[in-house]
Structures are given as C-alpha cells and as structure tokens.
C-alpha cells in the first residue's frame, strides 16, 4: 500500500532526495549542526533545571518558612512535568512542525523560569516551576527527532556522534547542576539557580530562532501551501494521540524489551534523586561541609559521567568483533543489538558497589575524599546504563518506533523517581546513611541479571515484538500484516 507524499500523520511524506532546498538530509554538515545545537542545549537545560534547584532548597526553607521535605518536593513536582509535557507538545509538533513548537516551548519555559526567580510565595514558586517543566520537557525528544530528520543515524558517523552528544546532554546535568548551583547560591542567593537556568534557555532560544523546519511532512505541507494555496491533509488528533501517548504506554506494557530496561533506568535515576537529598544531610553532619562544598561533592559523579563515554566505546568495539556478535541475526542484522549491552552489564555491577562504598565510608573517622570518590564509580555506572539501553532500543526499534520507546522510558523514569526525594530525608534520619545506601544498592543488585537475560534471550524476545520492523517487511501502513516468521504484526498507527 502507498501513501500520498503529502499525507500521513506521522511523517510518511519526505521531500525528494535531490531537492537541496527542501530535504534536510542534503544540507551541509555545518548547517545541520547549527540546526540541532539549540535543541541539544534546551535538552541539557531541561535536566539541569532538576538538579540545580537542589542547591536552592536551604534558601527556599529560610525564605518561605517551609519544611525541608516540602522545599525538596519541588524536585518531584518538576519531575511530574517531565512526564506529562512530551506527549502534549510532541503531538503538536507533528501537526505544526518541529521549529515552531520548539521555539514556543523554549520561550514559554524562559518566561516561566523568570517568573520562578521572582516568585513571592512558595505556592506560586511550585506552580511556576511545574509549568516551566511542562514547557521545556519536550526538548530532549525534540532534539532526537531533529537529529533523525537530519541524518540517517545508522549509517552516518556524524549522526551517531550527535546522538551520543544529545544523550550525554540529558545525563551530565544530573551532577553538573549541583556543581554549578551550590557555589552560585553561596556567592549570590538561592534565586540565582533560576536566573542561571533562564540564561541557558535564552541562549537556546537564540540558537533555535534562525533554524529552518526539519520535519519532512511539514516541509511538504509548506511547499504545497505555497504552490496551490491549499494545505495537504494532516493526521487526526486521534491518530496522533495513539502514536504519541497511547503507543508508549502500550509498548511499556506489552513489549518484552521496554519495561525491564525502563525499570533499570528508572531505579538508577531514583538513586540520583535520593543522593540529592541524602548528600547534603550526611556531608553537613559528618564533615561540616557548607553549601558550596556540598555542591562540589557532586564533581566526582560528573567526572564519572564523562569517563563513561570512552569506556563505553572500548566495550562496544571489543564486543563488536566477537564471533558471537558478528554472526548474522535471524532477522537479517549483521550485528546483533545485544552487543550494545556490555556497558549496561558493567554499569549494573558497578552501581551497587559504589553505593555500598559511599554508604559505609561516609563517617567522621574516614577522610571525606573516600566516600566522595564513590561518586566517580556511580557516575560512570549511571551513564553506562542509560546510554547502553538507549542505543540498544534504538537499534531494535529504529526511527519508526524509537521515539515511542524513548517516551515510554522517560515516563517510567520520572514516575518512579519523582517520589524518592520526599522520603529520602526521613529514611536517612531513621536508618542512617549507610543502611539507606545499602537498601538502594540491594535494589540495584537485584536488577543486575536483566542485561544478561537479554544477552542470551534477546533474539527470541525480539521475535515476539509487535513493533520491531524486520527485514523484508517495511510497509508501516496501519493494519498491515507481513508474511514470514519474523513479520510486523498488526502495527497500528505506525510512524513513517
């Protein structure tokens, strides 16, 4: 079955390959990099806004006279916006294009963040912070969508590198926010974490203002409108709701790969949120650290994030040459997606070790550098887990369903991690920092077998998938059923 090039809700239409003006993939590499820069910076800021606020918690407690738990609850409130926002605004981008919605998202987040910096009551701060999160939350998925608009990631080295950069932009702010925010608050005041976020959003807005549209169906619609003064038919909101909200939930519930990998990523992020509340408590009591010193204590975690990249590259290259992974897969791939799981295996082992290490060495009779160095191991494990699973799922689902798989993981991560800061302070006060980290470490240890299971049974699990597009069956028309043992079965509302 075929579609008109100007129709289809989810991007079936593409400009002609030879059309230098209309086809984003024919742009120069410099133009492509400039087009994606603002989206990546906005993605960075979306996550940065979560962690940098933690440095403001003591100031919020003092300014508004609220409890520490209530002040840190704004981390949870911000996280809820990260769950709801992408489904709403990404659907709008499919109707109106990436450029317009991305610019509106960043501008709205900028205005709301400035409002947060000027908030006179805790209630207004909470509302504005939630709305700012809601506005900026689509940017990580937008950045990945724009990258896929501009490059064939599977065959382009530049595209693959930009994907890695975009992924790192959503990981390193988890530690970098505290590293930057705490000294800033110590020198200025707690509102400056919001002003810093606003400055980053302003830079991102300036970067995205001049970029042209990259979404192929929107480009076709714009050209058709100019030529005939009649816009082509867009997909219905019902189709978009399925593709961009219902489908991720459906995949989370029925896909054998999505739920376990999203659960591991969610637990890892939950531990990060736990450290946001636990680090200030233990470091201020055991070592009398001030706010700036507490913020700099997250620096080893940031270094671990960065070091994970070359480690992941070494693992990926070493596993790719093994005979087990170079054998042809039953679905036609020359390299099995499971070769990507080496980083997740190593990260899964290192994470509980780092938590046991940090938990039981954070004592007055042990030098502070000893527990802080555990953050290096934790930061590395966190990055290895998140990036390995992200690349693994991208290899499996490709451009057609990769966005839905990513949305499913984001929902899971923020839904499970959002409540963690609310009970962390009570947990540490009740059972101590050592046992709190031990509990977290044991939960992480239980999840160690998951990548091993996929390593040995991944091919069989992929054959059970309803969303994996196998070789020889690339028609994504709703309801199409291909013949063969590895067919695409009844995929509804397929992208592309």
TrEMBL record:
InterPro entries: MFS (IPR011701), MFS_dom (IPR020846), MFS_trans_sf (IPR036259). It is a multi-pass membrane protein. Keywords: Glycoprotein, Membrane, Transmembrane, Transmembrane helix. The chain crosses the membrane at residues 33-55, 70-89, 128-151, 163-186, 192-216, 257-279, 291-315, 341-360, 366-391, 434-454. Residues 1-22 are annotated as: Disordered. Its main location: membrane. GO terms for molecular function: spermidine transmembrane transporter activity; spermine transmembrane transporter activity. It comes from the Eukaryota. GO terms for cellular component: plasma membrane. Residues 35-459 form the Major facilitator superfamily (MFS) profile domain. This is Major facilitator superfamily (MFS) profile domain-containing protein. It is found in: Membrane.
